[in-house]
């Protein structure tokens, strides 16, 4: 029997994953607070694009405004992917919770650590996490989403699916099977370590592009900005380790190596920089590659900075660990968000 999937948040990542699942034949319903997005999907479908011609297609799928969610009462949801910003997690989960089937559950398809917030609404037994690692998607126009990096394939596992308790369950294996139709996927017994790893990965990228106005490759190509990004990552790694998380590789680099590089280990720094500095022509869409936070800044929207670098800084303070780079970038992004500053490379230049 075909399972009913709800995507709460038809933005860049939710739209990309939900649209891809619908394209693969799954029963997908989008729910979104942006009226124009819902109407665009209804009128002409959701257009997806990638870095190869095969990744471009338009898919038809059901789309609901927030005021229409009660129509799901007749056909309860088996799997609800919450793909909203972290600050919208609680209400988005509460919105879909009454329409879950008896064995239905909620999947956090988000940045940051939101599983506890979701569990506060539906209970821990109905929460699964999906970490989307090294993926970059952009809702660049209403009803149109593009992926700006190549698929991970056998080089990098993009989707990591796990239970909060760490066991590999049938529902996790089923989700992995679904997501493998989109890109590489695996079940993980280390959801919390994967989550913190992705947090560090985001923290060293999302706010940096937001503060500078540069693309991700341009930030990594600038020596001063790249070194600042490493400081952000090093602090995040040390906080995560102090919290007891087992971190995975960050952008293909061992977390300990990256932390030592940030702390001045010259051999580690050489190894890290040789991996981080973009290779010419490696990404044909590198000039437009910007993470979600930078897209939010461009669109004048609220960012997730307090759930990302601000969160790392708060946890560091609780542990007595200094996090000056995370505090600095968090303050910069907040000021840009409020309109007090404009994005500029000079904010993080030498």
Please give a handful of descriptors for the protein shown.
four-stranded mixed sheet; alpha/beta; single chain; eight-stranded mixed sheet; Rossmann fold; N-(1-d-carboxylethyl)-l-norvaline Dehydrogenase, domain 2
Major beta-sheet overview: 8 strands, mixed
* Number of separate structural domains: 2
- Counted by DSSP, the helix tally is 14
CATH-level-4 superfamily name of the largest domain: NAD(P)-binding Rossmann-like Domain
On the 0 to 100 scale, the average pLDDT is 95
For the termini, the CA-CA separation is 59 Å
Q: CATH topology of the largest domain, which one?
A: Rossmann fold
Give the strand line-up of the largest sheet: 5-2-1-6-7-8-11-12
Strand proportion, as a percent range, falls in 15-25%
What overall form do the CA principal axes indicate?
globular
Give the helices and strands as they follow along the chain: EHEHEEEEHEHEEEEHEHHHHHHHHH
Low-confidence residue ranges = none
The CATH architecture of the largest domain comes to: 3-Layer(aba) Sandwich
CATH class of the largest domain: Alpha Beta
Return Rg in Å. Answer: 20 Å
Helix/sheet category: alpha/beta
Map the helices and strands:
Elements: E1 4-8, H1 12-23, E2 27-32, H2 35-44, E3 46-49, E4 57-59, E5 62-65, E6 77-82, H3 89-96, E7 100-108, H4 115-122, E8 127-132, E9 137-141, E10 144-147, E11 159-162, H5 170-179, E12 185-187, H6 191-203, H7 206-212, H8 216-221, H9 223-242, H10 255-262, H11 266-276, H12 292-298, H13 309-319, H14 324-337
Parallel strand pairs: 1-2, 1-6, 2-5, 3-10, 6-7, 7-8, 11-12
Antiparallel strand pairs: 3-4, 8-11, 9-10
Helix pairs in contact: 3-4, 6-9, 7-12, 7-14, 9-10, 9-13, 9-14, 10-11, 13-14
């Amino acid at each position: 029997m075909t399972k009913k999937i709800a995507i709460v948040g038809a933005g860049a990542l939710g739209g990309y994953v939900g649209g891809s699942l619908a394209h693969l034949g799954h029963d997908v319903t989008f729910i979104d607070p942006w009226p124009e997005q819902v109407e665009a999907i209804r009128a002409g479908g959701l257009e997806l694009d990638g870095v190869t011609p095969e990744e471009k297609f338009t898919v038809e799928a059901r789309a609901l405004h927030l005021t229409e969610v009660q129509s799901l009462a007749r056909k309860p949801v088996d799997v609800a992917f919450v793909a909203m910003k972290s600050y919208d997690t609680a209400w988005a989960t509460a919105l879909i919770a009454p329409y879950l089937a008896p064995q239905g559950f909620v999947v956090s398809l988000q940045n940051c650590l939101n599983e506890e917030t979701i569990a506060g609404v539906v209970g821990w037994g109905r929460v699964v996490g999906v970490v989307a690692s090294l993926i970059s998607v952009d809702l660049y126009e209403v009803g149109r989403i593009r992926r700006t990096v190549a698929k991970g394939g056998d080089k990098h596992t993009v989707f990591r699916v796990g239970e909060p308790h760490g066991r590999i369950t049938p529902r996790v294996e089923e989700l992995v099977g679904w997501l493998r139709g989109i890109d590489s996927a695996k079940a993980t017994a280390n959801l919390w370590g994967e989550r913190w790893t992705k947090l560090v990965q985001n923290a060293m990228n999302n706010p940096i592009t937001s503060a500078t106005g540069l693309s991700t490759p341009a930030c990594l190509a600038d020596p001063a900005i790249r070194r600042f990004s490493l400081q952000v990552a090093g602090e995040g790694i040390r906080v995560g380790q102090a919290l007891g998380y087992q971190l995975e590789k960050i952008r293909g680099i061992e977390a300990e190596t990256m932390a030592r590089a940030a702390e001045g280990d010259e051999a580690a720094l050489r190894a890290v920089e040789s991996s981080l500095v973009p290779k010419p022509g490696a990404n044909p869409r590198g000039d437009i590659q910007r993470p979600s936070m930078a897209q939010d800044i461009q669109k004048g929207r609220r960012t997730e900075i307090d759930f990302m670098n601000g969160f790392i800084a708060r946890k560091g303070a609780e542990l007595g660990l200094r996090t000056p780079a995370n505090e600095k970038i968090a303050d910069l992004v907040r000021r840009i968000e409020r309109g007090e500053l404009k994005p500029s490379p000079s904010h993080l230049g030498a």
